[in-house]
Amino acid sequence: MSDLTRKTAVELQELMTSGQASSVEITQAHLDRIAAVDDSVRAFLHVDSEGALAQAAAIDAKRAAGEKLGPLAGVPLALKDVLTQEGVPTTAGSKILEGWKPPYDATVVKRLKAAGIVILGKTNMDEFAMGSSTENSAYGTTHNPWDLNRIPGGSGGGSSAALAAYEAPLAIGTDTGGSIRQPGAFTGTVGVKPTYGGTSRYGLIALASSLDTPGPCARTTLDAALLHEAIAGYDPMDSTSINQPVPAVVEAARRGDVTGLRVGVVKELGGEGYQPGVEARFHEAVELLTKLGAEVVEVSCPHFQYALPAYYLILPSEASSNLAKFDAMRYGLRVGDDGINSAEKVMNLTREAGFGDEVKRRIMLGTHALSSGYYDAYYGQAQKVRTLIQRDFANAYEQVDVLVSPATPTTAFPIGDRADDPIAMYKNDLCTIPVNLAGNAAASFPCGLADEDNLPVGFHVMAPVMRDELLYTVGAALESALAEQWGGVLMAQAPELEVTR
């Protein structure tokens, strides 16, 4: 493995600034790494080698000409395949969009390009972001680099696996119910869900429009903060975008001082059903924050226990509406021969062939919840529960600055272990879902390895709306304190991934 692929984004920028390495050299090293290991990991759906090298060469030329460049200019990145990129295949992990090349860039992608970040390619994901393991992708399962027999999390398992396999130093994910944070926890990487509306959804293929949030993924807190700053900010193309300054996330990540910070441990997120090794690492991290000067108390959020059922009514309802556009009439897959003269038949055949089982399950559930006679009983009630959860957060933040919990109840489980049990699969997101229902900011930071299986554990931090910098304050403090015993970030403890080609 090239030394360049082991570097953080900050370290790579220092090498380019000092003239010790070029963006082309760094990009090529990561493309070589992808070629060497991705047959085993399967993090990428499309690798844009030619485009990435062209972007890198353009950055090198600007640097040679003395142009002022951003802090991530020339650094490679893996992009979740749910964000449109002009002229590059974008599938959202679904056969129904196979071969589609968007005619425009998502706002997040525009901002990545404006920052000079080199996009290596598109990463694998659960189809239309519906899943917690990346087993629902129409293009095969992504594997966890810590143990190739285990899942990397979902829906953004491709982005997190690319980081953990050293195929990219940065990645972009989207978080609807934990799809950035849960994969981050399972792969020992950093995953951040910004405040809803803090990053633009324009050009994001929608799953649930009131929940979806693009965000940064990285191997260090500072790298994630720099990427967060690059993609965040108001966008008039997104009606839910917040017209406020981006929180001072980079400053917080550089400072990392939790002295006097009030930290609330959520009583309802722990106990029965949580893996002992996960709870042990979580409580050790809480003790560490106390030693660093934080004030820790227990906080009750009594309605969090209803978050999972409420979410799985709200999300399918919005998904049913959003996915109605995939009707075989305008773009994407179209099934049917010349003998079929009914648009309805073509639509039925196409959706039957193009959508996977989990997508069909959620469309049917959502359509039922929105149907006449059931709307008030299901969707309406779920929205009332959502309000109660938002009130729980509001009450908690009157007592503390941030809330914390394990990011996931368990470590990464074996591939196929929960594929036939949707309820068990949905429970992966017990800790992450409440934040999406409230619109708050949250992140998962590595906090060690579970004793039972030597797999990564994530420490979940939740912050009020547009107080995203508090996430990085806690993450940086924790990372710095743990680095001494780990010999660096947690990824330094990962087994060397075998090169298969």
CATH topology: Amidase signature (AS) enzymes
| Class derived from helix and strand content | alpha/beta
Largest sheet descriptor:
11 strands, mixed
Helix and strand run? HHEHEHEHEHEEHHEHEHHHHEHHEEH
Helical amount: 25-40%
What's the short version?
With 501 residues, the chain is α/β, with parallel strands linked by helices. It has 16 helices and eleven strands. It starts with 8 loop residues before the first helix and ends in a 15-residue tail after the last helix.
List the helices and strands and how they pair.
Elements: H1 9-17, H2 23-41, E1 44-47, H3 49-64, E2 76-80, H4 107-114, E3 118-123, H5 157-164, E4 170-175, H6 181-187, E5 190-193, E6 213-218, H7 221-231, H8 249-255, E7 262-266, H9 276-291, E8 295-299, H10 307-322, H11 343-354, H12 357-370, H13 376-397, E9 402-406, H14 422-426, H15 433-438, E10 441-449, E11 456-463, H16 469-486
Parallel strand pairs: 2-3, 2-4, 7-8, 7-9
Antiparallel strand pairs: 1-3, 4-6, 5-6, 5-10, 9-11, 10-11
Helix pairs in contact: 2-3, 7-8, 8-16, 10-12, 10-13
